[in-house]
Amino acid sequence: MYGHPTADIKLEMTNISDLVSDIIFNKYKIRDPYYWPEKISNSFREYCTQKGPEFFQNKNDDFKQSARLYDHKRLFTASMFKRTLPNGEIGDRKWVMYSIKQGSIYCFMCKLFSSRLNSLFVSKGFDNWKKYEKLS
Asked: Organism's domain of life (predicted)?
């Protein structure tokens, strides 16, 4: 079922218990959206929604993989999991999932439910830290 250890995970499960046993084996990869299968099965979707987006955020990473060089080095920071709303309140970006492998962010709901596979938040991940403030 699995190819090379760094290859994308391919899940073809028929029930959640099969999925959970595979996930325990791949507990580090499953948290990283980079390794999620391109075609999302219903059992994988169900598992992820039961866990919720925060399970996949990787908030405790050091984010060094996200470093990008523009006029100076920029990288993703833990503060980017939050945003300031127009009324001044601080809101959580619960939809954001950070990929440790890729150093980019993905959208939880988009990755699970979107049919637009060419969207950055689904395919390669967003990593333009000069424009991160435009994220909702």
From this structure: Eukaryota
